[in-house]
């Protein structure tokens, strides 16, 4: 992918006035993609966010030319998959033309574009793409160490960690959009006493995980591993991802084959996909904050891209309990961490994923794993914040939390800023934890 | 699902003569579904196997009436998903009408049906359905104990095994049809010495796993767990499944999040899906051979179906090496095991899968895990047969194996037989292990 271009110019302003507010997530330098329903019974179609407006972009498809018109046409589909598959050449052309249409000095075509805008606040956003596969990595060495310390104080980090970008397959059909409540799952809960039988009940240790989601655009072929230096060609963009986790279900089930029901009940993603192109100014040195030692094996080395291997997305998690909402208290920040602190880079994760010949499909969602950093302010899950439930976290209004309670809203936000560049944001990934439902089988069984 | 009906009558004969041969896998009592290409450049469409013929069933869609005609129409699609989603009422109606069309006493419609037949041997079979999610269980207590013993001689079975039907998410896009060669994957291999660094090379411990694949038809809704007694309503059918495994890659990567690259390079399934309806006569007592102790938690109990919880599919694995092919030696049987020996039943696996609210989709593939039984003749993987590579297995022609070598063909077959019923078979799931390819990144890298 090429270097930042004219679309990244911080001086660019849009005739959509809200996009020019300095702290707005969706300035003209961003242009993230999503999908919405124009009416509750209408088929979804794709959109671009600009300021506080949603651009119903397939309605102005005739304004795009050459390569960009293929992208515009593909955006009439109910999700981004067709457009994402087209690859970066077409995406760059589309971005350049869309930017021009929205710039302050555009006159002739502005009325047509303006007619395709609608207020974001009233839009019904849906899952932005069909999730084909969902893979979750474990790329934060801080998180891996913090989580490992709870189980193995003497050896927090397993011997494979600095060689293998560890990952597991998640459940693709559990991925949903920000705003959809997450129901507390039932599962097998094992009392701590050795030999005690598990019981089947709603999870008592509900948690969130702050993650960056990588969305695959151009697919790869089976049997053709990616070089790290080519991996970014297959990244369409990024989203915020909350990998909801039931720690008690997970702790009892995960040996020897890894997490399953402790994760597969829900994964929330933000509705707007920030493109790899929009993030170009925020690529930074992979090793700046987390030097890789030992040097990765050759198939994971990428000397050509060493200076820009990481992507500096600042991530924040906040909580707002039912009590806080009643009292009008704002959400309370729990953590701030940065994707540039991940041990493994985006390119290394994708190179590893394909290194055995496994193909990547358009619409694959690849989670970074919990993004934690050094220090108590940068812990991306309650498991870490509460030291496995041992320490209570004080909230405004006098409440405390070790794990989530019913009615708690978890809100992830993310943004990028760098000197000489316009700040861009990810919007939010938020959901309320709803109480467990009465369990069908138990109610109507024997 | 109802009891065996007229379509299971062992006295039924077909005017397709080959279907009446006593040992044929596809008699008129079977009628499994698949998909094929009529020409190499044609879109695939669905088919039914009868004897040594393939029935291009959407060509005779006008012969079906009422509910069955919806199934027939859906079979014009490139895979079975649309037809599978219709549910058992429609499938039973289709099966009854199709059986009548193929019975020996059919006269009037026989010419039309005959015109839609083509020899199986010349047909290009493709993946029979679009695999949505792929979940792999660990339901054989024999396999779990045998594999566990290699790592933990004192405690082969982990404490959760008899409570939790342990499973993990596999990689759906790695599933392919029988006949496609499987390429030996590269991966990180860790020498046994503590502290030694891993190297990146082709796997040296390639293995197969004999499994039964469950194919989901009617979907479930998110948040609505299945009762075990209702689970079979969502099973379209079964296939043979070879969960190829690179034991060395898996051993180094799997802590703490389970198998990933050690499995995601390839999973082979048989091209014909034997329906849940065809298997009705072979349902047997769940606890006949593998009593569940302790009693499962309430959400996994199914008192109403206790007598028919298991499905007695006899599974065989055989090997034919390149040397054996050259010398004209037949394939050598490595194991014979039975799905009725699984600790967890099909209904329990699906009930567990949905117990946290996770939905099942049409086209989900659910593997049983390696089906091993008691005794040395019933070990469903080389890991077990060679005791983790410690013991060599003698093959005809003077060769030995601990793990697979390039050119080895692994062939899985399966069948059901029961007194008073016609034997039915699954065809085969076979693939040759091809040599590792030169590794792209290493070749063209630094």
Detailed description of the structure:
The structure is a homodimer of 446-residue chains. Chain A is α+β, with helices and mostly antiparallel strands. In chain A, 18% of the residues lie in helices and 24% in strands. Chain A has helices at residues 66-74, 81-84, 88-102, 110-115, 141-151, 228-231, 247-253, 322-326, 346-354, 382-385, 440-444, and strands at residues 33-37, 45-50, 53-55, 117-119, 124-126, 134-137, 167-169, 175-177, 182-183, 186-189, 199-202, 206-207, 210-216, 235-242, 245-246, 267-269, 274-275, 283-284, 310-311, 314-320, 332-338, 365-367, 393-394, 400-401, 409-416, 424-434. In chain A, the strands form 7 sheets. In chain A, strands 6, 7, 8, 13, 14, 16, 17 and 22 form an 8-stranded mixed β-sheet that branches. In chain A, strands 4-3-2-1-5 form a 5-stranded antiparallel β-sheet. Residues 442-446 of chain A have low confidence and may be disordered. At the A-B interface, strand 7, strand 10, helix 7, helix 9 and helix 11 of A face strand 7, strand 10, helix 7, helix 9 and helix 11 of B.
Topology:
The structure is a homodimer of 446-residue chains.
Chain A: E1 33-37, E2 45-50, E3 53-55, H1 66-74, H2 81-84, H3 88-102, H4 110-115, E4 117-119, E5 124-126, E6 134-137, H5 141-151, E7 167-169, E8 175-177, E9 182-183, E10 186-189, E11 199-202, E12 206-207, E13 210-216, H6 228-231, E14 235-242, E15 245-246, H7 247-253, E16 267-269, E17 274-275, E18 283-284, E19 310-311, E20 314-320, H8 322-326, E21 332-338, H9 346-354, E22 365-367, H10 382-385, E23 393-394, E24 400-401, E25 409-416, E26 424-434, H11 440-444
Parallel strand pairs in A: 6-22, 8-16, 9-26
Antiparallel strand pairs in A: 1-2, 1-5, 2-3, 3-4, 6-7, 10-11, 12-15, 13-14, 13-22, 14-16, 14-17, 18-19, 20-21, 20-25, 23-24, 25-26
Helix pairs in contact in A: 1-3
């Amino acid at each position: 992918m090429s270097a930042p271009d004219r679309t990244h110019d911080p001086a660019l302003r849009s005739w959509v006035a809200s996009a020019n507010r300095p702290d707005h997530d969706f300035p003209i330098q961003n242009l993230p993609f999503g999908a919405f329903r124009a009416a509750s019974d209408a088929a979804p179609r794709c959109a671009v966010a600009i300021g506080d407006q949603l651009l119903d972009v397939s309605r102005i498809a005739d304004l795009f030319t050459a390569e960009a018109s293929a992208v515009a046409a593909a955006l009439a589909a109910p999700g981004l998959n067709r457009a994402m598959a087209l690859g970066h050449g077409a995406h760059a052309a589309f971005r350049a033309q869309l930017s021009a249409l929205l710039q302050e000095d555009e006159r002739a075509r502005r009325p047509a574009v303006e007619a395709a805008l609608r207020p974001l606040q009233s839009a019904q956003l849906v899952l932005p793409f069909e999730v084909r596969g969902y893979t979750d990595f474990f790329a934060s060495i801080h998180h891996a160490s913090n989580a490992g310390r709870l189980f193995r104080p003497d050896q927090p980090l397993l011997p494979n960690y600095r060689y293998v970008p560890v990952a597991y397959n998640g459940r693709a059909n559990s991925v949903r959009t920000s705003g959809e409540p997450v129901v507390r799952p039932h599962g097998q809960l094992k009392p701590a006493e050795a030999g005690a039988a598990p019981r089947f009940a709603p999870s008592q240790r509900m948690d969130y995980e702050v993650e960056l989601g990588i969305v695959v655009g151009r697919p790869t072929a089976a049997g053709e591993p990616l070089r790290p230096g080519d991996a970014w060609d297959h990244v369409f963009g990024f989203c915020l991802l909350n990998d909801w986790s039931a720690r008690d279900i997970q702790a009892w089930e995960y040996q020897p084959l890894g997490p399953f029901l402790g994760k597969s009940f829900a994964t929330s993603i933000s509705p707007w996909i920030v493109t790899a192109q929009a993030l170009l100014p925020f690529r930074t040195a992979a090793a700046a904050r987390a030097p890789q030692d030992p040097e990765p094996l050759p198939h994971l080395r990428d000397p050509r891209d060493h200076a820009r291997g990481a992507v500096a997305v600042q991530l924040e998690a906040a909580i707002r309990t039912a009590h806080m909402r009643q009292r009008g208290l704002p959400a309370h920040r729990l953590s701030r961490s940065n994707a540039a602190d991940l041990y493994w880079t985006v390119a290394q994760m994708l190179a590893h994923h394909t290194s055995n010949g496994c193909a990547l499909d358009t619409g694959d969602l690849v989670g970074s794993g919990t993004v934690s950093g050094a220090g108590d302010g940068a812990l991306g899950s309650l498991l870490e914040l509460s030291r496995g439930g041992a320490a209570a976290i004080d909230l405004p209004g006098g409440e405390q939390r070790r794990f989530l309670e019913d009615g708690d809203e978890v809100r992830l936000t993310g943004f990028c800023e760098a000197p000489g560049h316009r700040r861009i944001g990810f919007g939010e990934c938020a959901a309320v934890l709803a109480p467990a439902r009465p369990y069908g089988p138990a109610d109507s069984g024997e």
